[in-house]
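Table S2 (text version). Query chain:
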Amino acid sequence: MILIAENFNSSVPSVAQAMELDQQDVLAALAHRLSDSAADYIDVNAGIFLDRESEKLQALIHTIRTVSDQPLVLDSPSPAVLDQAAELVSRNPLRGHAPGDGLPDLLLNSISLEENRYQSVCEIATRHQAGVIALLMDDQGIPDEPEASLQIADRLVNRLRSDGFPDRHIFLDPLVRPVSTWDQAGRQVLQVIRELSRRYPEIQISIGLSNVSFGLPGRRWLNQALLAQAMACGLTCAILNPLDEDLMQLYQACRVMLGQDEWCMDYLNRYRMK
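Corresponding C-alpha cell output:
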C-alpha cells in the first residue's frame, strides 16, 4: 500500500497562512514530521493562490527539500504550473530516498481523458519520467455509473500504455465523491475499486480519502470506514493524513487482516515504538 500525505494543500487554512506569510520554519517543521511518518510521497498543492500558484508551489518545494528527501506528488489544475514545478524537481533529484518497486520518483496529479489536459500532462510526465494519477473522467465529466467509470478506465489505461507509461507509473483514481451530496458515492467507488483491482493487478488504484466525508460532522469516522472497506476491495494507494494516529492504527490493522503484514511485524513494531 502506498500512502500519499495530503497535508501540504493550500486549502488547509494553516498551510495557506504559512505559505502566504512565507513562514518557512512552520512549513519545514511539517515537512519534517511527514518525513518521519508512514507516507511514501508528499502531495504539494498551491491552487488557492491563482495567479501566484507557480511561484508559491516552487517556494513550497524548496522549503520541503531543505529538510526532506521524500518523493513528491505535484498537484495542480494547470499544466503550465505542473511543468514548471516538475522542472524544478528534476533539477534536484532524490538522494537515496527513491520509492522502489518500480515506482516513479515523481507523480503528477492529475491526468484524465479530457482531451486538452491529456495531451499536455502526458508530454510533461514523459519529459520528466513521472508517473500520473489518472482520474476516471473525460470531456463529459465524472460518470455516475460504475460501468461508465470502468469504460473510461479501459480507454485511459490503453492510451497511457500506448504512450509508453509502464503499469507501475499509472495510478487510477475512481474519484471519491462526498456522501453528503450523493448517498451512493461510497458504494459506487467500492464497486469500481474492486473491478479495477481485478482488471489491472500491476496498476495502482488510488483515492483521495477525505473527499468522502466533506460537509459532514465526524469526518474521521467516515474516512476510516472508507479506508478499511476500500483496502478490502483492492485499494493500493491513498491520499490521506499520515499524522492522524487513529487512522494509521486502523491502516496497520487492515494490513494485518488482509495478509499484507508478514507475522504482524509492522503492527508489532508500531507498538514497540510507542
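Notes on Table S2: The chain is about 45% helix and 15% strand. The mean pLDDT is 96.
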